[in-house]
C-alpha cells in the first residue's frame, strides 16, 4: 500500500532568479508579462508577481522581441565561438560541469518545488555534469574526409556548425535534456537559444550561499550565473521561458535559427515540423511520445522482470516518454507475474517531494493530473482495475497512486495513447506472433523490451519490434550511453547519444579542388568580405595560383531590421543630380597644408588632411590668415607660451640594460601591462598570435631574458611603456586583478619614460635583425611613441617597419618553401596591420604613407581566419572590414586633399557624393556581427567601437572641408554652390553626432582607452566639428554634445597624449571662444577673441 508522510509543506525558497538570460545578462521581458508557478503538492503559488513579499516573484515570459534578441545575440556570438580551439571551449564545459555537480542537491529541491520530482530520486545534476564533461573533449572527433578518386582533384568534405541552434526542452527532466542537447551543439561551434518549459522554469536554477563552507537555500540564482562563471562568452547560451505558443513558435519559425532540437509531445513535434517547412526548412530533430511495450515470456526471470517494469512506469510518477505502460505476459506465468508486479509496484511513499523519505511525487500540475484522471476513467470502463485508481482529493496535492489495469482491449484509448502517469496495462498472450503484432500495433515506437532466456527469441524480437530502442531482459530507462536513442514512427526523428548527437548540429560540405599540379598540400580557406561562406576559395598548394581579386562580394538584401538605420543617424546619400565642380576646397587646402613648429622649435610640414591642421584652422574662422601676409603658408608662432612644453627626452646612457640580463618588471606587473595591451591596443592592431606571445613571454621569464632577441625585448619594452603609464592610478580595476597588494608594496622601478629609453636603445640592433620580430617591435614602438607625443619619431619608425616588410616580400605574399601555413597567415595579418597603421600614423602628420598603392603593387591576400584565429579580443572579419574602409579613406584623401602635382585641384561634387554613398554602402554591407547596436562579446566591444569611430571619422574626413569653408568664407559662395556646401556640411555634423554616440557607449562599456591616441584624437575632431556647427547657428543640442565631448576627455585615463590634451583644454577652449555656463549644461561660441592659426593647440603638434 502507498504510505504518506503527512504531505508536510516545505519552506518557500527565497530569491529565485526569474528573468530571461540573454547575451550573458539577466533581463526582464520586454512587454513586462509574467507567469506564475503553482506547487503541484501544496497548490500554493511558488512564483507570482510580488503577492507575497520577499520570496514570491514573477517569472518573465519571453515575448517575440525577447526571442529575437536572444537569437541575435547567439548569431553575433557564433563566429567567435566556432573559431575557438577545442581546448578553449573545453575549459568552459568542465567548469560548468563541476559547478552543477557541486549543487546537485540544490537542483533537486528546485525540481521538487517546480514539478514535484522527489529529491530522493534526483540524479539529474550528475547526469548533466557527465554530459558536459564528455562533450568537453569531443570536438576533435569532428573531422571531414578526403578522396583522390577523381583524377586531378582532391575532394574534401568539411563538417561545419549550423550557426544558431534552438533547443526546446520538456518539464519532466529539464536539466538532463539541457545537457543532452546544448552540450553537443556547443561542442561543434554552434550557439544556442534554449526555451525551458513554463511548468519547470526553476529546473536550471542553482541555489547556494557560502557560509562556513556550507550550502544553504538563502540565495538562489539561475544557471546563467554558472554559465558566466564557467567562462562562456555572452550570447553563446541564451535561456528564455514562457508558453510555447509564443517563444516556441517564434523559434520554430525564425529565419536565423538554422537547426532545432525538441523533446516533448508528438502533437507539438508536428507543429514544429510544419513551422520549419513554412520558414527556412531548418532541420528538426524530434524526440516525442511513447507507448512502450514490455513482453515477458515464461522462461524469463519473473522477479527481475517485475522489478524492471514497475520501476519504469513508477519512476518520476510515470512522467517519462519511454515508460513501460503496456506489459504483455505469457499466459502460463501471468498470475505469478502479476502478483510479483503488485508487490513491487504498490509500496511507495507519497508526499512532500522535498523530503528524502518520499519516493513518489505528485503529477506536475493540475492539467497533467486531470489528464491522468481522464485515462483512469477510461481504464475502469474498458479494463479490469486490480490496484490503485483512486487518487486522494486533489486538495492534498496532485497525487496519483500506482495503478494497474488488466484485460484491457487493444483498441481501448488507454492502450493506444500516452497517459504520462503511474498507470500500467497488463495483458496476456499465448504465442510469439500474437504478441509481436500487439506490441507493434501503435503509432509510437520509442522503446520496447523483451524478457526471455532464449537468445534466439531475444534476437527475433530485438529485430522485429518497431522501436528505436529494444531492451533485452531490461527496460526503460536503461539505455546504452554510447548507442543512439530515438523513435520509430510517431516517436520522433533523428537519434541522440554520446556518439550521435554531434551529427545533429553539423552540416557537411563537399569541396572538389582542382589539384593536378599540386606538389605540396597546404590548405587555406579564405572567405572574402561580404561573400557567402558557402562560396569559398581554396588554395591547395603554394604554387597553385587562384586569382580572387575580381570576386564580387554578394550583397545581401536588407530588411527593415538590417538597414543602415541600425547605426545612429545614418544619412541618405546626397542626390547625385547635376552639380558644379569646386576649386574653393583646393584654395582652402593651400592654407591648411603648412609648416608648424614642433616642441623642439623645428618647422614640420603638416598636410591638409591632418587633424592638427584642421583643428588649428577652426580657431581662425573669424579671421583667417590674409593672403597678403608674406609667406602666409607658414603659420607664425604665437606671442605667448610657445614653443609648447616638450616631453622629457630619456637619457639613454644610464638606461640601457645588460644584454645578458635585461631588465624585466615583476611578473605580476608584466601580466598587467600585457593584458592591457591585448585588450586595448592589440585588438585593433594585430601583431602576435596570443598563444605564441604568452609562450615566448613565459620562456623569457624562465631564462631571465638572456636568450631573447633585441626585437623581442624592444616589443616588450614598448608594451611595458604603455602599461606603466597608469601605474599611479590605484583605482584601475584591471591592475587590482593582476597585482596583489604584497607586490604593489614593491612597485615596478621603471616608468613609461624608462621603458621607452630601453626600447629606443635597442633600435639599432632591431634594424640589424630586420625580421618579422623587428617589424613588430618598430610598429609597437611607433604606437607607444605616438601615445607619448613623439609624433615625428613615430612616423619614422613606422616607415622603417614598412621598409623591412618590403625587404621580406610581405607586400607580395612571398614566403620560403618550408614556411608553415600558419606562419604564412601570421605574416599576411601583420602586413595588413602595417598597411592600416601606416595610413593612420601618416595622417596624424598629414604626411605621405609608404604603402601607397598608386606606386606599390600589393599582391598579399587577406589572412584566412579558418587557419589562424585572431584571438578573443578581435572579432572575425574585423581586419578585412577595416582594410576595406582604410582603402576607401586613402582614396578620399587622394581625391579631396590632393598632394601630387598631377592631381587636379578641381573637386567634383559628384565625386564627393559618390564617396558618401560608398561609405554608406560599406556600412550597410558590413557583416551582421560587426554592426553597431548588435549584442557582442565584451572582449569585442572595443574593436567594434573603434571600427565604427573610423567609419564616422571617414565621413567627417570627406565632408569637413566644406563645413570649414562655410564658416570661413561661406558668404562668398553663389547660391547653388552654397546649397551643396550646406548639404555636405550637414553630413559632417551628422557624422560627428554619431561618432559621439559611439564614444558614449564605449565610455559606458569601459572600452575607451588612452593607450593609443585615436580615441582622444577622434573626440577632439568632434569638438572641432561641433564648434563649426555652433558658428553656423546657435543650438542647445550641439552645445550639450560639445560639453559631452569635453566630459569624455576629462574622464578618460589621464596618461600620455590624453593627459596633455586635457591639461590644455580649458585654455584652448577659451581661445576658441567656447564658454561653459555656470550650470555646465550649456556651451556657446563667442568670437570676440581673435586667434591666429598657429595659436591654437600648440601642444597637439608634438
From TrEMBL:
What is this enzyme's class at the first EC digit? oxidoreductase
Alphabetical UniProt keywords = Nucleus, Oxidoreductase
**According to the UniProt record, where is the region Disordered?**
547-584
Task: Report the GO molecular function annotations.
Answer: aldehyde dehydrogenase (NAD+) activity; DNA binding; zinc ion binding
Give a GO biological-process term: DNA-templated transcription
InterPro entries reported for this sequence? Ald_DH/histidinol_DH (IPR016161), Ald_DH_C (IPR016163), Ald_DH_CS_GLU (IPR029510), Ald_DH_N (IPR016162), Aldehyde_DH_dom (IPR015590), XnlR_reg_dom (IPR007219)
Enzyme Commission identifier(s): 1.2.1.3
Q: Which reaction does it catalyse?
A: an aldehyde + NAD(+) + H2O = a carboxylate + NADH + 2 H(+)
User: A Pfam family matched by this chain, by name?
Assistant: Aldedh
**Would the keyword Nucleus be found if you checked this record's keyword annotation?**
yes
The record's comment on protein family reads: Belongs to the aldehyde dehydrogenase family.
Instruction: Show the PANTHER family listed in the entry.
Output: ALDEHYDE DEHYDROGENASE-RELATED (PTHR11699)
Q: Return the protein name.
A: aldehyde dehydrogenase (NAD(+))
Q: Organism source for this protein? A: Hyaloscypha hepaticicola
